[in-house]
């Protein structure tokens, strides 16, 4: 059974576990430079991190499967950015990505929705290889492609409204 842990910056052990997954996937597998992977946004007050594990009692990080980060956009209420979505190679095709994105969307609605009815716009920069995944979750993929860390990306967006 997959377990979701949503945390805020400031819990060093949790952030170390998040970084371990991101470095394994982005730096180790995809060749992203370390200085491109880590930024000051990890510790920003409006940042939320989500960690999915398959063993809730494991505090070592060995059971950690995936992570994602949600950034608030203070200049644009009702807009958030899903970033650094990473699933370990051994955990792919187990639904971890869906669990991560569902958790991010729930946080986005609960903490960042604006208007009546409450609506939030979730934006992300999708690697082209992940576009079918994001489409399956209801994200609309933009037409323009661009390089980010030497990997082709396209912008994607999903508008979520409380029911």
TrEMBL record:
Highest taxon, organism lineage: Bacteria
Keyword terms: Acyltransferase, Transferase
Keyword Transit peptide applies: no
Tagged with keyword Chloroplast: no
Top-rank EC class of the record's enzyme: transferase
Signal peptide from the UniProt entry: none
EC number of this enzyme: 2.3.1.-
Domain N-acetyltransferase: 2-157
GO molecular function term, any single one: acyltransferase activity
Originating organism: Occultella gossypii
Name of the protein: GNAT family N-acetyltransferase
């Amino acid at each position: 059974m997959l377990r979701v842990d949503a945390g805020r910056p400031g819990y060093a052990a949790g952030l170390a576990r998040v970084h371990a997954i991101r470095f394994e996937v982005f730096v180790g597998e995809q060749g992203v430079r370390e200085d491109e992977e880590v930024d000051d946004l990890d510790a920003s007050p409006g940042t939320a991190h989500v960690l999915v594990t398959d063993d809730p009692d494991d505090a070592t990080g060995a059971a950690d499967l995936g992570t994602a980060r949600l950034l608030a956009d203070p200049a644009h209420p009702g807009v958030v950015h899903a970033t650094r979505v990473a699933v370990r190679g051994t955990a792919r095709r187990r639904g971890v990505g869906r669990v991560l994105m569902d958790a991010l969307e729930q946080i986005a609605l609960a903490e960042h929705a604006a208007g009546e009815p409450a609506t939030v716009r979730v934006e992300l920069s999708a690697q082209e290889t992940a576009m079918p995944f994001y489409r399956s979750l209801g994200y609309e993929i933009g037409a323009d492609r661009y390089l980010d860390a030497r990997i082709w990306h396209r912008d994607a967006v999903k508008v979520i409204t409380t029911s």
